Every structure is written in C-alpha cells, then in structure tokens.
UniProtKB/TrEMBL annotation:
Sequence segments annotated as region (Disordered): 236-261
Biological pathway: Cofactor biosynthesis; thiamine diphosphate biosynthesis
Known role: Catalyzes the rearrangement of 1-deoxy-D-xylulose 5-phosphate (DXP) to produce the thiazole phosphate moiety of thiamine. Sulfur is provided by the thiocarboxylate moiety of the carrier protein ThiS. In vitro, sulfur can be provided by H(2)S.
Organism: Thermus tengchongensis
Protein name per the record: Thiazole synthase
Summary of subunit composition and partner proteins: Homotetramer. Forms heterodimers with either ThiH or ThiS.
Length: 261
C-alpha cells in the first residue's frame, strides 16, 4: 500500500482538508468523507473565540484526526500561545504552525516561523510549518526536526494554482534531505493537486477550493481523484520531455512524406 508518514503516524490519504468556509457542518462532513481525508485542520483561535462558523466545530469533527493550527498568529509568541491552547482543547500534539503578520497577501514570516518551530519542538509538539517556497528555510526546519514542511503554491485562498512550480521542483529534487513536503495554499482545481503530486511531493492541503465550490462534496471527490491520479502518474515514471517531436510508429520503410503516426 502506498502510504506516507507524519511523525510516527502512517496515512493513506494524501489530501488534508481545512475546516473553514463551509456553509454548514453537514456539508463539511460530507466533503471530508468524499475527499477520503484522514486529517482536518482546525483554527484554534477562532474556535476558542467562538467565532461564527466555528461554534461546535470540534464536536462536528469527532472521529477525524485533528490538526490544530495557529491561524491568526502574527508572532512566534502568539503562535506558541495558540499551539498550547490547541493541545489543551484537542489533546493533539500536532500543530500546523502559521505565523502571518501580513494582512494583505497573508505571506508567512520565515524568521518568526523558525523561532516558533524551535520553541514548539522543545515543548514536545509535532510541528508542521507553513512556509514560502524557500528551500533554505525548509532545510533549517528539517534540521530542527519538524514533521513536515508546507510550502505555498500561491497566496492563501487565491485559487491561482501552482505559481511557485519552479521552486517546488527544487523541493522535489531535494526530497531525500527533507521531511514530507505538503503543498499548502493557492490550489484552486483538482488538476493543480495532480500537478503537485506528479512532481513527487507528498501531499496537499486544500480548503477554499472545496468549501467555496458550488458543490463542495463533488469538488472534494474531484480533488481526491486528482491527488490519486497525480501520485499514480509519479509512481508510473513519466516519460522525459524531448526537444522535438518523436513519431509513435516506426519510420523504416515509410515513403518520404508518409504518415508519422
């Protein structure tokens, strides 16, 4: 069976779901099932503050592996407080580390993320840091011992697709020196998820593209199929691209100007 690991937890699904933005908990649960997701992220700060759409969220996700996140943290110190609260509320030592001081583009702060990761690891957390597509930072986090690295494909919630592909290809080349690579943020279509998995990266995290679809449940299933197709294509060993055309039928014995197929 083709599985992957986060820490010592073995997972079959390579599609992690976010729990925000769904119109109600019923649709969210159906989407999780259609996606085949084993892990779902939860914004602990919004749950604790009882924000609209988050009241009763933990109860609605009963039976699913929760990944508390530090959404809303602008500094390492704030991320530490939220992570500790998440562990107290859920009993999980997993934490998706997000440190985002930029309100316009929602880009993660690399310095504060590294600082927070080191502190959380010292407190026994299993840290899954959200970062820009920065291979140097990813290596530093790997040296610290984070469970994954989670580079962005495009700005959060944009649906732009794999705009950082050239940099993600570097992550794919360096897979042996990194923990599992989970591409997070910006994916808008199942084909985007397939593209990421075709590179040989480990998984994707998707929220907005599913929650804001006209039919979130159908879109969740489509993303599951996209992830599965991309992973199978990678394992199948894609043909290398060529500089020019190559006929699919032998050309020996074919008159000049004859068919090329």
């Amino acid at each position: 069976m083709d599985t992957w690991k986060v820490g010592d937890v073995e997972l079959r699904s390579r599609l992690i779901l976010g729990s925000g933005k769904f119109r109600d908990f019923g649709v969210m649960r159906e989407a999780i099932q259609a996606a085949g997701a084993e892990v779902v992220t939860v914004a602990i700060r919004r749950v604790e503050a009882r924000m609209p759409g988050h009241v009763g969220l933990l109860e609605a996700l009963e039976g699913v592996r929760l990944l508390p996140n530090t959404a809303g943290a602008r500094t390492a110190e704030e991320a530490l407080r939220i992570a500790r609260l998440g562990r107290a509320l859920t009993g999980e030592r997993w934490v998706k580390l997000e440190v985002i001081p930029d309100p316009t583009y929602l880009l993660p702060d690399p310095v504060e993320t590294l600082k927070a990761a080191e502190a959380l690891l010292a407190e026994g957390f299993l840290v899954l840091p959200y970062i820009g597509p920065d291979l140097v930072l990813a290596r530093r986090l790997a040296q610290l011992g984070t469970a994954t690295v989670m580079p962005l494909a495009a700005p959060i919630g944009s649906g732009w697709g794999v705009k950082t592909r050239a940099l993600l290809e570097l992550f794919a080349r360096e897979r042996a020196s990194l923990p599992p690579v989970v591409v997070d943020a910006g994916l808008g279509l199942p084909s985007h998820a397939a593209e990421v998995l075709e590179l040989g990266l480990d998984a994707v995290l998707v929220n907005t593209a599913i929650a804001e679809a006209k039919d979130p449940v159908a879109m969740a299933e489509a993303f599951r199929l996209g992830v599965e197709a991309g992973r199978r294509a990678y394992l199948a060993g894609p043909m290398p691209p060529r500089e020019g055309a190559s006929p699919s039928s032998p050309t020996e014995g074919v008159p000049l100007g004859g068919p090329g197929r």
